Amino acid sequence: MNCCLLLPFMLGIPLLWPCLKATENSQAKKVEQPVGSHLRMKRGWVWNQFFVPEEMNTTSHHIGRLRSDLDNGNNSFQYKLVGAGAGSTFVIDERTGDIYAIQKLDREERSLYTLRAQVIDITTGRAVEPESEFVIKVLDINDNEPKFLDEPYEASVPEMSPEGTLVIQVTASDADDSSSGNNARLLYSLLQGQPYFSVEPTTGVIRISSKMDRELQDEYWVIIQAKDMIGQSGALSGTTSVLIKLSDVNDNKPIFKESLYRLSVSESAPTGTSIGTIMAYDNDIGENAEMEYSIEEDDSQTFDIITNNETQEGIVILKKTVDFEHQNHYGIRAKVKNHHVDEQLMEYHTEASTTFIRIQVEDVDEPPLFHLPYYIFEVLEENPHGLFVGMVSATDPDNRKSPIRYSIARSKMFSIDDNGTITTANPLDREISAWYNLSITATEKYNIEQISSIPVYVQVLNINDHAPEFSQHYETYVCENAGSGEVIQTISAVDRDESIEEHHFYYTLSVEDTNNSSFTIIDNQGEPVFYISILIADNGTPSLTSTNTLTVHVCDCDDTGSTQTCQYQELMLSMGFKTEVIIAVLICIMIIFGFIFLTLGLKQRRKQILFPEKSEDFRENIFRYDDEGGGEEDTEAFDIAELRSGTIMRERKTRKSTSAEIRSLYRQSLQVGPDSAIFRKFILEKLEEANTDPCAPPFDSLQTYAFEGTGSLAGSLSSLESAVSDQDESYDYLNELGPRFKRLACMFGSAVQSNN
Prior knowledge:
It is a single-pass type I membrane protein. Cadherins are calcium-dependent cell adhesion proteins. The strands form 16 sheets. A four-stranded mixed β-sheet has the order 7-14-13-10, with no helix packed on it. A four-stranded mixed β-sheet has the order 16-23-22-19, with no helix packed on it. α4 (656-669) runs antiparallel to α5. Among the domains are: 49-139, Cadherins (Immunoglobulin-like, Sandwich); 147-247, Immunoglobulin-like (Sandwich), CATH 2.60.40.60; 255-362, Immunoglobulin-like; 369-461, Cadherins (Immunoglobulin-like); 469-516 and 524-566, Immunoglobulin-like, CATH 2.60.40. The chain contains seven helices and 47 strands. 19% of the residues are buried. By secondary structure, the protein is of the alpha+beta class.
């Protein structure tokens, strides 16, 4: 079977399709046929490929024709298309075998379609020939412009870089077929960035073409264009922008903008005081702008400069104190340089920038200044009042030279005048105090707030004014039968005076004991032994002598010649004396405790007197009887007027002024009624007792009283107080009170008789 594929003209170009003839034992042969012709092949048919241009914008575009050599044109054959894209992208005319593209083709989406063709006999429904496979290849056209896929581009390069320094490489991509023509062959060019940058046409590498200074401009925008078809006519292009920043290098040295700085400092400022700041400027940034200040010229070595690392300022500080009267102004020169400088950039830092600083010293009112930091004087002890000790001197360092007044703080032994002369105010005793630490104060008369003080040390020198004496109290015991030459006591002496040499004492008997043959004295080679009344002389100048008495007890010793018996008797004697002292102390203690107990007892008794009702003894029996009075209407029992006629006043412990007030109130209350006056009087008495009671609590308290009236001729009817005077009390008067009291008279009368 022979077949052929017809391809139409596209864009005025004849499109040829190859028709391959396949045999069992022969190779297919490619044959180009013009459009409208067909190729017939024997013994079957095989399609190789179709070439179809992309970007078909028509809804139905004829691609070619499939035709079997068995087809005689009677429409008995049916053509079918099978495979990817069949029916959706490509369709075939079943009668004629014409293939059409019904969708727009895009090579960048799909460049190759593999399909299969069949020829069916309509009458039999069977395939006329075996199924044959063919390929439709979409041809590329230049329909895609170059694109930069890695946007945005940003690069950094050091300033002052030489020509040819690589900055960055930009790369564009073209979706067209790079293997077919020049559609994807790109060419780069620089649209913006001359004359500082250039781009390699084929690689897109951007390089520096001229040195740049960051201090003039620190960033640049460069525009790169990529054009396909090697820039030929009809080529498509794309552009991108590249931000190129210049990084800083230390190509600028710091410079002082001020050639002269004027500063001032007070003469009273301590060392380390900040006087002022100086400032240099560096066009570089970051680490390259870090500066270091130093003093270049300062013969006085009075000032120094340190760097503030945060503000990059130079701080001028005081290295030594200044004195206005000595020098009132200074001139120094300072320089500045960068802290970090690379060797290849040293050419920019050959000479450091300098500036001159003039410093004015300000005068202040300074306190007096002593000529010495301290004074040490010596004076002999036991000298009279007003003895010269030494002289101190202070002056006003200011120009006005104020007079100075001196004083000694907290000293009764020395005094000082306005000339600074120190004298003694009282005799000095080295044995009491060998050194005196004085504080001398100098005050300006023109300004008393200006004060200075220095220490003055006064040493009191020794004179031989103390005679030697026994180092301790000696109790010497000797037997009455002691032999001649026997040592009975070894003694030693002390001297409170200070000696240049070691103390040495000379011991002799007093004149009155010289003729006493019972005792002698022997100088024991520097360790003298003394007996009885002894003269002790020191080695001072002049030598002093003292008489010291040694008490010797003569004892009746035992056969061994021991003096223990005498010592025991003395011990008992001293113990007896101590016992008497202890007894006397104990008696005193007992007297003191007795006085304390007596005082407490008196206070307790006084408290009972102030509250007599609290001390009543309620130990008596209470008798119960059923007789009742007749009330207010009962006037037959007794005469109430008779009871009130002799009113018995209670004892009052009040002051005279208070008693007079009570009597006045009593007289006033009689105008209202006798009962109310009596009650008011009772309340006032109790109030006065509470106010004058020293044992009453120091806070508000509630006092309750049972008032039975001011009493009657018969006295109290209660038997509670009858324990004290039952035998002496007579109850006969109860019979005179009326029939209501007969029961009581009978009861108490019989009780008295039984007691008797």
